[in-house]
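Residues determine shape. Take a concrete instance:
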Amino acid sequence: MKFKNKKTSYRLKTPNKTKDSCQIDIEWIPSPEVDEVLNMTEITDDFYNLKLKEFKIYWMERGQKKNNWNSTFIDFIRREWAKEINSKTLTGSSFPMT
């Protein structure tokens, strides 16, 4: 196979960039691209919806401005899902609970 001199151009669909930082509000929802990313995981809809509410409440109370709420949400929900899976693994194992 010859791959030299063959250039393939792929365009990644990205959400609109927001240059201005803003506070999150109760109406904020993740972009469709976030849903695409999270659909590749085993995160359940119930878990997603619960953590979305928790995420918004936490950041509204902090009042912090960001320009990357989508990325922040992806990081948050992945961490929370990992904690959930790990806690289920530990409670389902033969480790003694103290």
